[in-house]
Design goal:
With 152 residues, the protein is mainly alpha-helical. It starts with a helix and ends in a 7-residue tail after the last helix. The chain is globular. It has eight helices and no strands.
Length: 152
Amino acid sequence: MDFDAYIACLTGKDAKAAYALAQRITEESRVSDAWYSHFDEFAVLLSHKNSLVRNRAVSILAANARWDGEGKFDALLDEFLSHVTDAKPITARQCVAALPEIAEAKLEFIPRIRTALEQADLSGYPDSMQPLVLKDIVAALEKISTLGNQGA
C-alpha cells in the first residue's frame, strides 16, 4: 500500500479499518521513526472536517513527537493545542490524553501545554461532557507534573 492509500484509509468511510490502521501507525511510531517522514501529511489531518480523522491524527502525531529532531512539532503546537477545546468533546479528550506523551518527548513544550490545559474553557460542551473533559485535563496535568520541572 502506498502512502496515499494509507491516507485514503485514514480518511475513508470504513471507520473500523481506519481505526485499526491509526492504531497500528501509532503503535509502530512509539517504537520506530518509520512514519515520521510523513509527519506533515498527518499534520494536515488535524484540520479535517471529520472529528474521527482528527482523533487519528492526534494519536499518530503524539506518537511521532519523540522522533521530531527537525522541529516540525514546534510549528504545529498551537494548532495541536487548539484541540484541547475541539468542537467535539471526544476529540478534545483524545487531545488532552495525548499531551503527556508529547510533553515527555518535548520537555520544552511543558509550560505551553500546562497553560493550554489550565486555561481550557469547557463551557461550550454539554453539561454531561464537561466533567469528563475536566477529569482528563486533571489526569494529564498530573502525568505532566511527574516529568518534573525540566520544561519549566
